[in-house]
Amino acid sequence: MEAPSFSIAVSSSRTVIRSFPSSFHTSSLVFLRNNRYKTCHLKVKSTGKFAVRASFSGDSVVTLLDYGAGNVRSVRNAIRYLGFDIKDVQTPEDILNAKRLIFPGVGAFAPAMDVLNNKGMAEALCTYIENDRPFLGICLGLQLLFESSDENGPVKGLGLIPGVVGRFDSSNCFSVPHIGWNALEISDDSEILDDICNRHVYFVHSYRAMPSDKNKEWISSTCSYGDRFIASVRRGNVHAVQFHPEKSGDVGLSVLRRFLLPKSTLTKKPTEGKASRLAKRVIACLDVRTNDQGDLVVTKGDQYDVREQSEENEVRNLGKPVELAGQYYKDGADEVSFLNITGFRDFPLGDLPMLQVLRYTSENVFVPLTVGGGIRDFTDANGRHYSSLEVASEYFRSGADKISIGSDAVYAAEEYLRTGVKTGKSSLEQISTVYGNQAVVVSIDPRRVYLKSPDDVEFKVIRVTNQGPNGEEYAWYQCTVNGGREGRPIGAYELAKAVEELGAGEILLNCIDCDGQGKGFDLDLVKLISDSVSIPVIASSGAGCSDHFSEVFNKTNASAALAAGIFHRKEVAIQSVKGHLLKEGIEVRI
What we know:
- By secondary structure, this protein is α/β, with parallel strands linked by helices.
- It folds into two domains: 61-260, Rossmann fold; 280-584, TIM Barrel (Alpha-Beta Barrel), CATH 3.20.20.
- It is built from 16 helices and 36 strands.
- α7 packs parallel to α8.
- The radius of gyration is 25 Å and the shape is globular.
- The chain starts with 8 loop residues before the first strand and ends in a 7-residue tail after the last helix.
- 49% of the residues are buried.
- Belongs to the HisA/HisF family.
- This is Imidazole glycerol phosphate synthase hisHF.
- InterPro entries: Aldolase_TIM, Class_I_gatase-like, GATASE, His_biosynth, HisF, IGPS_HisA/HisF, IGPS_HisHF, Imidazole-glycPsynth_HisH.
- Keywords: Amino-acid biosynthesis, Chloroplast, Glutamine amidotransferase, Histidine biosynthesis, Hydrolase, Lyase, Multifunctional enzyme, Plastid.
- L-glutamine binds at residue 139.
């Protein structure tokens, strides 16, 4: 009789019990050696005593096809978190020799196909998949399997699955890109999706493949967003998903685990969720800067002033960025946003502490990370010029999923509105062309300016809900740069419309007047912008209680709401906000 297998862990010096989830069992054992998991096999004789024989094997190696675009660090971290080593594809032969292959496609369709074709990897990839070898494509790694894409095209794909990848239709009042946590409709034979259990997974994309009679045998799940699109495919050992498992928290890790350990079983199924549609997102924001002692800290402003109103006038210190981000992930934050409010002013790529924050955070935080602060072209002290694309690329390589552009987007929009010409040279255009517009967030920092008459300025004017200090009934929202210190001749409405055309995929909408006040979001501003653009809008500035979140979701078209101070000071817990939203009938990820 075959001896039963047991799960234990071994360190380099002694055998110890490892605290795995009690429900997880596998025919192979996972050993901890030098702080890294290793797969081994163990046999136990059915006598009163037992003997352990462990031998490490090469089964713990995952081959990763990283063609150099976007945040692949998150996938790497998730694979290592699950106990596997990584071998990077260097040649087409590495693909053909892989025992299991993961292709985390990030960015735009055409550049990815160019890399595959130019390096001779497209043919090897097709051969590998056609031979039914273990394969997992992620996001663009799914789209490239189809015949072609309309993204900057038509562009020919690998042609393994019938169908054309097309853009979402934004004319039916759905924001594009599709960003956020959505529900899946899973087929019976999905295998790697078996542990999702009706819970949300994270999507971020502008293009999708549609079900048809020709590709229906491939489809393992679909998702509804305007139309029903293909969320995952499966044929034999070949899998691909449109969503991001590495950014879908514990649910996503279960998908990766199912692929990497296909013979594993769960004796206890995860708690069944109630996901039915796209959830509203609750985002934790961390304003990061150095304090007067040179330490990197999380701070929070009061109308953008981050110093205490005391004799010492010190920078408010609300915690360490990596620790706080990890805590917010455990608390249920749907995304974590870092704003580097003092760095990258003179030498962006020299800001190593902030890059390290991203690297360390992404090791254990498996939800989307956004980072902003100083994304622009610059020339260093030696005369070396760096493009904003190079700066953004370093952010992505360090663990960011999206980058946020502030002042540079204002200048680009002003130039575009003045000339009517898209030069392709702005940071918005450069980054969105390579990484896709879903990777680019524009942070708008407006200040409310009251008016007696709507004809007083050339910018978009609204009738305000609450009158101004002198009884004014109208206002416009003047955009600012340099941390709110300098007003610009452009309104928030005009800026939002312009950056959408230039390639922004999302808007982070702040309000200087509401910042740190705890009296609620500026609903007039959020409604104005979210009704005017077809890309998602994140409401920011002013949250003081859970009611403010339900208010902004019920009264505007905001896709997400962001808060900082109330979470840092533990005045309101993220789960309290989500519990309140559920009671109000607003879908959230739990």
